[in-house]
Predict the structure.
Amino acid sequence: MTIWNELAGLDFTVRTVDAGGVPTRALQAGSGDEAVVFLHGTSGHLEAFARNIAAHARSYECHAIDMLGHGYTGKPDYRYEIPRYVEHLVNYLDAVGLAEVHLVGESLGGWVAAQLASEQPERVRSLQLLAAGGTVANPEIMQRIKTSTTNAVRNDDIELTRARLRLLMHDPVHATEELVAARHRIYHQPDFVANIHNLLSLQEMEIRQRNLLRPDRLARIKAPTLVVWGHENPFGDVPEAKKMAEDIPGARLRLFTECGHWPQHEQAALYNPLSLEFLAEASARAKSVA
């Protein structure tokens, strides 16, 4: 079982936290003076970081959550736009007593993390944007996400879930059978099926446009920022990553070869030490300024 093997030997808990009235599934591990919060992508869940938690928990208090309307977190009946996700994230941080955190966001998670960093800089010690969404509105990609996810959710055929997960990977071997089974079970919860239109609302052009991370917003980000991208990312080309890094003051860009939309997963052996080095530098910088 790959997920459990990745966490073998690690003390961790999976619990439900009341985040402003939304029951929120969270995996918590590690300890330390600083916390790292991991945020997954559209229709994802906290298992997206199964290959990263153990490495980070040696030095940090780690939290990986199912975001609003995702995984086993509550699914209120309204459109999930970025301010709603940010509100939910802040409510979670308040509920667990975290005033300031390092944020690691993949895809949608990066979009949400960047939004919070631009609005409440005092809460974000550092920012990692892993194949982050939110800077462009490509109709073809939006339709691909909407169609592939809806088909996998509304049909019980596990092959559709497997195809949706493999869409994220350059090498399909990384879409392990355990991940497929975990996602298939999540996708077929009755409340997930009933709520899929809310979860996919950012794939509607009008809604997406009013939520985009535009250059003026990115320019307001003060936290040290690392942008990580895969050369074979099916949801965004390298120029998108370069522009994102250029628009955020002082941001660094790291590109991975043989990598799709989950750099933290497909290239965990490269990503984990890169992330830990970046976190240590951000912490040292904050202490020197204080």
